[in-house]
Design a protein that fits this description.
globular, two-stranded antiparallel sheet, single chain, 5 strands, mainly alpha
Length: about 210
């Protein structure tokens, strides 16, 4: 559908253009967000369903031990890259003072070394939701997409090349996934920068 999507478990300004997060983006509350790169309009409804389906699958299944171990091992080393320059070291020192956690690299490596896959999966189930969320979509034909979202009609996918049977079977489940948005509001593009809102916003706090 596109060449890759991504998610962040904390605020990551300029995330689409940076490999590492900036220091000094400390927050009292964090944000979990999923970004879907552009898709052709006919696949917009399906792309949203896939993202929500995959999020729910993560919540239900969590990380496998192998996934957790590989990620933790990477982060144990990556913390040094985050503080590779004096400017970054100073930046994370300020963040550490804000959070009250002590020296950044030492704190992170100590906590990561004690972390377990059960801790992570418990946090995923506690803090993530595929039902209580807000969605912002930029669309050329927002009115048509709004109608599709409100009707909750199936959104089958078609491919230019043959796909494995298990992929097609999963597609059938996803295409019928009920999103049930409680409200859909279209914001004209000339109002976007005045209000800070997206061109089309759909929220479904009831799911």
């Amino acid at each position: 559908m596109n060449y890759g999507d991504y998610a962040y478990v904390e605020a990551f300004p300029q995330g689409g253009t940076r490999f590492f997060p900036l220091a000094n983006v400390a927050r009292r509350k964090q944000i979990f967000e999923i970004w879907i790169r552009p898709v052709v309009p006919v696949n917009a409804h399906a792309a949203l369903r896939i993202a929500i389906y995959e999020l729910q699958k993560l919540i239900d299944r969590g990380l496998a031990q192998e996934q957790f171990t590989a990620t933790r091992d990477y982060l144990m080393k990556n913390v040094y890259l985050l503080t590779a320059t004096e400017d970054l070291q100073n930046g994370y020192a300020l963040d550490s003072k804000f959070y009250g956690i002590g020296e950044f690299t030492r704190y992170m490596r100590d906590k990561l070394s004690k972390l377990t896959v059960d801790d992570v999966n418990r946090a995923i189930r506690k803090h993530l939701s595929a039902r209580n969320l807000s969605v912002v979509i930029v669309a050329a034909d927002a009115a048509s997409l709004k109608d599709k979202l409100l009707s909750d009609a199936p959104s089958p996918l078609t491919y230019d090349a043959p796909k494995p049977a298990d992929v097609l079977a999963e597609d059938k489940v996803i295409s019928a996934l009920r999103l049930s948005p409680t409200s859909v509001r279209i914001t004209p593009v000339d109002e976007v920068f005045a209000t800070g809102a997206g061109e089309l916003s759909a929220t479904n706090p009831g799911r």
